[in-house]
Amino acid sequence: MEMYFLQRREKLNADRNNFYKNSFADFVSCKKPDRNPDYISSSGSKYWYENDGVIRESDHFGKVSSCEWTLNNADFYSDNTSAVGFCSLNAFYDVDLLMFMMLIY
User: Fold this and answer.
1) Of the candidates 64, 93, 98, 102, which lies 20 to 30 Å from 16 by C-alpha distance?
2) pLDDT, tens digit, 9 for 90 and up, residues 9-18
3) Are 101 and 39 in contact (CB under 8 A)?
């Protein structure tokens, strides 16, 4: 008998006003925009809003406040450099609605 755990994430109906609230997302490396950021967080992360998503420049990806944001499917932490990534608004998931299922064979 084996047990398997499957995790299902519920999509978040994300927009620029809520994508940062209790969400999971995987950002993909991209080029930094050639304009001033639309928002700078208290930790210094910079955000640029695009029509279909958000670009984030930060020295940390992983557990971010109430969110779990990865960069290229991995955590990223640095004391002296930052990384830039893009995530489509339809690729944010609600971490409060994670569902787990256990299958026994």
Assistant:
1) 98
2) 678 889 999 9
3) no
Task: Give the Cα separation of 66 and 74 in Å (integer).
Answer: 17
Give percent of the chain above pLDDT 70.
82
18-22, 54-58, 84-88: which has the minimum mean pLDDT?
Answer: 18-22
DSSP-assigned letter for residue 33 = P
First to last CA, the chain: 5
Global confidence as pTM? 0.81
| Cα–Cα distance, 91 to 25 (Å, whole number) | 6
Degrees, nearest 5: CA angle 21-57-88 = 55
Tell me the chain's radius of gyration from C-alpha atoms. Answer: 15
What DSSP character marks residue 12?
Answer: P
